[in-house]
Design brief:
The protein has 246 residues and is α/β, with parallel strands linked by helices. The protein is built from 8 helices and 12 strands. Helix 3 links the parallel strand 1 and strand 2. The longest helix is centred in the first third of the chain and has 26 residues.
Length: 246
């Protein structure tokens, strides 16, 4: 039986490859938009549920696109939390700003996770961890969303004397920090667990600082699967980031 890390990485990679093929065909035939979003969500969800049902048949799964069987999963020691297509709007528009999230929690704590991010080189996982490199010799870069988070990101960038960029998908934004293209990702308001669990777990495994906007640890597989928000940051920038959000 494969290790949970390997299962997470394999599933995130397989779903991402399938989605990338779907997106490329759709762009060529000009069938982007909500139809592609819907198809992508459905295809990736069916793939992940089918594979997890085969690989880990005794574990409940919380998927953004599935039915939440709360009574089953909240009492389970192990539960998978997946987002088959994070950033579906960008996917439907032909953008690279999307990701596949696959995470396993044990008693509410992530124990294996992966994010498939074709736009940034493939799969980042808890199974293959690279040492955190030194901060690049440039201005820090803050990445955030395009809506309500933008004003908070702008304030943080001013405090850190940083550049500010925005894009979709929490997995994609986390991968920007993992890949060294950004230094802080901030989302100051609540998110669903499937948006956060896999990216946060992978980031922490790679040595990045991960917490909610108040500096607290994140916990998962709750009855109401929502977390207060997310910060992923290079460790040397965390305290200044939290101070700016107070």
């Amino acid at each position: 039986m494969s290790a949970d890390h390997e299962v997470a990485a394999a599933l995130a990679g397989e779903a991402a490859e399938r989605l990338l093929e779907l997106q490329e065909r759709a762009v060529q035939t000009r069938t982007t938009g909500w139809q592609l979003e819907y198809t992508g969500d459905e295809v990736a969800h069916d793939l992940l549920m089918g594979r997890l049902g085969h690989e880990r048949p005794d574990d409940p799964v919380l998927s953004e696109e599935g039915t939440d069987r709360r009574s089953e999963r909240v009492d389970a020691t192990r539960a998978w939390i997946v987002d088959p297509l994070d950033g579906s709007a960008g996917f439907g528009a032909g953008s690279v700003e999307w990701a596949v999230h696959v995470a396993l929690t044990t008693d509410g704590t992530p124990t294996a996770a992966a994010i498939g991010v074709p736009g940034l080189g493939g799969v980042f996982s808890t199974g293959e961890v690279a040492a955190l490199t030194e901060m690049p010799d440039r201005r820090p870069i803050v990445v955030t969303g395009r809506s309500k988070a933008w004003s908070v990101g702008r304030h943080l960038a001013e405090v850190l004397d940083a550049d500010l960029v925005s894009c979709g998908s929490s997995g994609f934004k986390t991968a920007l920090v993992l890949a060294g293209h950004a230094d802080v990702y901030v989302h100051p308001s609540p998110l669903y667990e499937w948006d956060v669990c896999a990216p946060a777990a992978v980031a922490a495994a790679h040595g990045l600082a991960v917490c909610d906007p108040f500096g607290a640890d994140l916990h998962y597989n709750s009855f109401d699967p929502v977390v207060p928000g997310l910060i992923v940051a290079r460790p040397e920038l965390l305290e200044r980031t939290l101070a700016a959000l107070r």
